[in-house]
Specification:
A hairpin with a 2-residue loop joins strand 5 and strand 6. The longest helix is centred in the middle third of the chain and has 21 residues. It contains 4 helices and 12 strands, in the order ββββαββββααββββα. Helix 1 runs antiparallel to helix 2. The two termini are 28 Å apart. 24% of the residues lie in helices and 35% in strands.
Length: 240
């Protein structure tokens, strides 16, 4: 049993990312992002896209739609006086395509996708019922789990930019490894949470700042040394 989950469903225009940072939290997140006119995608690390936090009760209703017990479910979320309309609705009576509407974002899920979503949400709900409802248990998301979410988002966006979609970020990745690698590179871009670094093998990779354990100069194209978690370098084939 793992502590966090992340899975993505992408089409040509809209991507849906499902995230649970820890089984101890009685909620999880749905994030949607759009493709821009220039072909790039909205970046969560830049505050783009739409994110909604769903409670356990809301997950139950979403699962009821996915299992075809009901035709649809809709609700409103309010955050800082901003209301977001939400709905999960079957396209027709055959129930072969599911529409997810969150604010101005709409994503359709085909059979294989909504079945995976159904199984994933059932699994996560079962975990959270067991661990997030225990008295005196810590409900705070750990720093490591928050870092994992940031790492997953950056890997998603880096994968999209290179024409690849990773649907399971945990395959063959040991996130618990404490290995830190010293490596030379030059900064090519920067956001609040990540650096785009070009390494000696000419690979350009978005690296979350939380995974960089050395100081660095923000000057673009300056060749310098970085200390970075080894697993993310291996995942992006910067090192072997």
């Amino acid at each position: 049993m793992v502590d966090n989950h992340s899975y993505s469903f992408f089409g040509q225009k809209v991507g849906l990312i499902i995230q649970s940072a820890t089984k101890n939290d009685p909620f999880m997140f749905f994030r949607l992002i759009k493709s821009k006119n220039d072909g790039s995608w909205e970046k969560p690390s830049s505050g783009e896209g739409k994110i909604i936090k769903f409670s356990l009760e809301e997950l139950v209703w979403i699962i009821r739609v996915l299992t075809k017990d009901v035709d649809s479910w809709s609700s409103y979320h309010t955050f800082k006086d901003n209301k977001t309309q939400i709905s999960f609705k079957w396209e027709n009576e055959e129930k072969e395509r599911l529409w997810v509407h969150i604010g101005s974002y709409s994503k359709v899920l085909e059979y294989s996708q909504f079945k995976i979503l159904e199984m994933l949400l059932k699994h996560i709900l079962k975990e959270k019922i067991e661990f997030a409802t225990v008295l005196n248990s810590s409900k705070k998301t750990s720093t490591n789990n928050l870092s994992n979410i940031i790492v997953q988002e950056e890997i998603i966006m880096d994968s999209i930019d290179n024409g690849e979609i990773f649907n399971n970020f945990k395959d063959h990745i040991d996130r618990k490894s404490n290995e830190i690698r010293d490596i030379t590179g030059a900064i090519k871009g920067e956001t609040d949470k990540a650096l785009l670094i070009q390494f000696e093998n000419e690979a350009e990779v978005w690296i979350p700042k939380s995974r960089i354990h050395s100081g660095f100069d923000n000057v673009m194209n300056l060749v310098q040394k970085f200390s970075i978690d080894g697993w993310i370098l291996k995942k992006n084939k910067v090192v072997s």
